[in-house]
Amino acid sequence: MNTDKLSVRLETVAKYVPIESRLADIGSDHAYLPSYLVKNGQISFGIAGEVAKGPYQSAEKNVMAEGLSEKIVVRLGDGLEVIRPGEVDCITIAGMGGSLIASILETGKEKLDSVNRLVLQPNINAFAIRSWLVENNWELIAEEIIEEDGKIYEILVAEKGEPLKPYHDVQEETGLLVGPFLLQRKEIAFQKKWSLEKKNWNRIYKQLEEAAPSSETEEKKKELVKKISLIEGVLSNEDGEWS
């Protein structure tokens, strides 16, 4: 992967960045994504934000080597600290846990007034992001699920709007967990992800069955039974292939 050829994961993130955007890529690592977008004429300005000094220096070096310093600013800082109010209209955050992404958005909420679109790629726990979007009046407008190098990733795209609109035709609890748009399509990667999750939950349930009984253990078992039942309903279809 480099500034000319992204991974499938980052290519999928890139395609949801609107043309002529002023972008902040949070946790930019090598600044591959903003560099790629500038070189392809997709964004007019980019900020590559990094909290760790090593990746920050790597991003700075890459931007300079590509001759993109006039269009991409590399900044060291935590989350949305690297953005000034009104500076960008699109934010990408990719390759972190969903809870961390939601926390970054919550902590930097005051920086989102000028932002029209969020493109978010959690490695785990997309539920935390969908929940945050609903609670903060962001409408999920698109989702993708992909598999690359044996790992499954979800990409969530949101704009300001009607936060409950995507959940009108699905049970909200189910939609928040698995994704309302992904639920409609039930692609192979989706089926694989949730089959593996169900298998893992069953394994944990068996471990809890063998553990010393306690109110906490019973509560966890109830929660797991509920999740397993929900996913069995999601994966079942008319021919029973994924039941």
Q: Shape, please?
A: elongated
Most strands sheet: 7 strands, mixed
Average pLDDT over all residues: 94
Question: What is the helix/strand order?
Answer: HEHEHEEHEHEEHHHH
Structure classification: alpha/beta
**Which range best describes the helical content: under 10%, 10-25%, 25-40%, 40-55%, 55-70% or over 70%?**
40-55%
**Whole-Å distance between the termini?**
38 Å
* Count of alpha and pi helical runs: 9
Strand order of the largest sheet: 3-2-1-4-5-7-6
| Fraction in beta strands | 15-25%
Computed CA radius of gyration, to the nearest angstrom: 20 Å
Low-confidence stretches: 238-243
Strand elements, count: 7
Question: Short summary of the structure?
Answer:
The protein has 9 helices and 7 strands. It is α/β, with parallel strands linked by helices and 243 residues long.
Please describe what this structure looks like.
With 243 residues, this protein is an alpha/beta fold. It is 43% helix and 22% strand. It contains 9 helices and 7 strands; from the N terminus they run H-E-H-E-H-E-E-H-E-H-E-E-H-H-H-H. It has a 7-stranded mixed sheet, sandwiched between helices. Helix 4 links the parallel strand 4 and strand 5. Helix 4 runs parallel beside helix 5 and helix 8 runs antiparallel to helix 9. The radius of gyration is 20 Å and the shape is elongated. The two termini are 38 Å apart. The relative contact order is 0.10.
